[in-house]
């Protein structure tokens, strides 16, 4: 699919190479920053991006170690540090008051960004955002220091394969095709991503608490799939209670991968929320 004035870039931030894409980028349009979820990349927004470029400058980021960003073995993969990467990229692009759109884990990164630098964020749109997850179990963190632990992660992820994992995150299985499988599988051809994921297990500090969420005043739109088996709708309802200036909508017969499943509907609700 053709995109308006597309360009791709690498930027070194905090010692790690971060890949991002610009679509329809101009200072005259409000800027939307797309933040993907766990084991995903900017590829997950491929159906939503073309709908946004008429009205917005779109920045799609690959969070390290995912997508085309560096699979660094020195970076500290905490949510706070990932949020700092987003804020520094916003500043490097000389943006002001961006709209953050975060899917799944990307929702937590977006919320962390708003908590860290509220003046940089105009509004937040959370797509099946993760919430209320605690830090990894202490035993798992200790195990991550064992030699070749990354091979266990690789084996664990390979049990269902990309096809099996996609079946867990979409409602309509007919939408899974070869292009989709290849797009989500591509970043996992390098074993370094499993080594980096080992570090993420150690560093991820858990999701924001209810107290932290209640401190976020940025207007927020929460969008959910009612058949989401990964982050159930009750998480969205709980986030709605804790984020004071928020609205929750949900789609029937929709799973976790809402940017792929309902791009047109999401686009319409975004326009109503933002204008």
From TrEMBL:
It comes from Bacillus songklensis. InterPro entries: AB_hydrolase_1, AB_hydrolase_fold, Epox_hydrolase-like. This is Alpha/beta fold hydrolase. One of its GO terms (molecular function) is hydrolase activity. SUPFAM superfamilies: alpha/beta-Hydrolases. Keywords: Hydrolase. Residues 30-263 form the AB hydrolase-1 domain. It holds the Pfam family Abhydrolase_1.
